[in-house]
């Protein structure tokens, strides 16, 4: 399976600190995406990075991709209480459906 | 544009019953996917429909089925419900089968008693 696995499973930080989450996967991919989910709600797409890209930014988000290590990281800078949510990586390969990891639960304490 | 709409939001059923969940994709989106989310297994892919045809199917028993209508709205059905079917069922749409970004609805929380 190419299911991504996020690390850590849970992360608790103070407001203003940076949060880093990691994702590892098993097979070659076309792209890797990060999604966010507030408790009991649907997922919201954050950012997509293609297999030929190494780094991408979107506002306070920075994503890196290392295809040689089959890993990605999501950095949220200057975290806010509103960033409290679960974050999922998802991998895409060919015409297969998007496969999600089990997520990192981020708690940002005000 | 309105987002992905799933109904109902909450559902309580008993073992052995069947249930039908509904999903209306974003206007113009022709692909609809369904995922089951549980605390233990995370998000697991059920199936994807594109232009009324099932394009992909996950590893779920035949009790789980779905369909898509000509207006791209989709339904999924679970027959002979089991306790383990309790989960958040999420529907997601995208513009085409090749567009990678998914737009999710808020989900239907199904509880099987």
List the helices and strands and how they pair.
The complex is a heterodimer of chains A (110) and B (113).
Chain A lengths: L4 E3 L2 E5 L4 E6 L6 E7 L5 E8 L4 E4 L2 E6 L4 E6 L8 E8 L6 E2 L3 E6 L1
Parallel strand pairs in A: 2-11
Antiparallel strand pairs in A: 1-3, 3-8, 4-5, 4-9, 6-7, 7-8, 9-10, 9-11
Chain B lengths: L4 E3 L2 E4 L5 E6 L6 E8 L3 E9 L2 E5 L6 E5 L5 E5 L8 E8 L8 E2 L3 E5 L1
Parallel strand pairs in B: 2-11
Antiparallel strand pairs in B: 1-3, 3-8, 4-5, 4-9, 5-6, 7-8, 9-10, 9-11
Would you give an account of this structure?
- The complex is a heterodimer of chains A (110) and B (113).
- By secondary structure, chain A is an all-beta fold.
- Chain A is 0% helix and 55% strand.
- Chain A has no helices and eleven strands.
- Chain A has strands at 5-7, 10-14, 19-24, 31-37, 43-50, 55-58, 61-66, 71-76, 85-92, 99-100, 104-109.
- In chain A, strands 2, 4, 5, 9, 10 and 11 form a six-stranded mixed β-sheet that branches.
- In chain A, 35% of the residues are buried.
- With 113 residues, chain B is mainly β.
- Helices cover 0% and strands 53% of the residues of chain B.
- In chain B, the strands form two sheets. In chain B, strands 2, 4, 5, 6, 9, 10 and 11 form a seven-stranded mixed β-sheet that branches. In chain B, strands 1-3-8-7 form a four-stranded antiparallel β-sheet, with no helix packed on it.
- At the A-B interface, β4, β5 and β10 of A face β5, β9 and β10 of B.
Q: Characterize the main sheet of chain B.
A: 7 strands, mixed
Quote the distance from N terminus to C terminus of chain B: 37 Å
Label the structural class of chain A: mainly beta
Residue stretches of chain A low in confidence (pLDDT < 50, at least 5 long) are none
Oligomeric grouping of the chains: heterodimer
> What proportion strand of chain A?
over 45%
Give the strand content of chain B.
over 45%
Question: What Rg of chain B is obtained from the alpha carbons, in whole angstroms?
Answer: 13 Å
Mean pLDDT across the residues of chain A is 93
